[in-house]
Amino acid sequence: xxxxxxxYTPKVIFFxxxxxxxxxxxxxxxxxxxxxxxxxxxxxxxxxxxxYNIDFCKSSDDTLFIKxxxxxxxxxxxxxxxxxxxxxxxxxxxxxFTFVREDVSRAFSRTxxxxxxxxxxSINKRLVxxxxxxxxxxxxxxxxxxxxxxxxxxxxx
Length: 157
Known about the structure:
single chain, Immunoglobulin-like, 2 domains, six-stranded mixed beta sheet
């Protein structure tokens, strides 16, 4: 009975919850920043209708980051965006999320309210062994799994 009472003291409960939060945060950070090698068969896109703008890119001491918008006739209506970079002669995928850019939709008279052309992509450079200049490659993957390279962009700082 003493051990049971010990487990339910406020200090033990607090320490257990605190430890669980630290473990969860660490696992989330690791899963976002782990290296995913890019090894798809890529076709060079011959589409000149890609429209894009890089709002911000940065290669700081510990983070590789890029933000902007991109679209063409097919993306984002179908398929998905993949952003990569290269370190140690290996191309790796940078985790990203896309979001609606109403300013871009208005500027290009796009009416689809779910037009997720905006993107943010970042990764911790220390976890991927990255020490080069920031050069990003943009790919569109269609619903059939075909990958087209549509753009390379070097971050000028």
